[in-house]
Amino acid sequence: MKTYITKNINETRDWARNFAKTLHAPVTIALHGDLGVGKSEIARTIIQSLCGADTVVPSPTFTIVQSYESGGNKISHFDLYRVVDASELVEIGLVHAIQNDITLIEWPDIAKDFLPHDTLHVYISEFQDGRKIEIAD
Question: 49 near 20, Cβ under 8 Å?
Fold first, then answer.
């Protein structure tokens, strides 16, 4: 497990920008953490790093998935907080995204049986005034 400590939101965004540089499709990133800890902010920064800083990145809380294009790569951003039945994951395109895209998944627990073995699990927690970010693969 790799651990990173960020002292504030700007350092967290810097971490996400650097992390984004390492991503190439297909790859799945499962973002774990409590409500309000920064999963959406990290996903937004990754997407903007890959697609351009002016890219509008709304939270997919209600749409469940948002898609983006960058240099021939598709980026799929899922928020599974409201999904109650794992069978819905096929209908919303999760399996296809995992096989083809840079796939960011917030609240990934319901998808555990769909995640590939090489999923990057990113655990985000509060730490002092910043965040602790741990990556397990």
Answer: yes
Apex 14 CA angle, 12 and 17, nearest 5: 110
What distances in angstroms separate CA 19 from CA 14, 16, 58, 95, one per listed residue?
A: 9, 5, 20, 23
Tell me the pTM. Answer: 0.95
- Residue 3 makes CB contacts below 8 A (sequence gap 6+) with 132, 133, 134, 135
How high is the pLDDT of residue 59?
85
Residue bearing tokens 């651990």: 3
Q: Residue 17: how many CB atoms within 10 A of its CB?
A: 15
The pair of three-digit structure tokens given for residue 68, joined into one six-digit string = 């983006």
CA 31 to chain centre: 5
Q: How far apart are CA 43 and CA 41, in angstroms?
A: 5
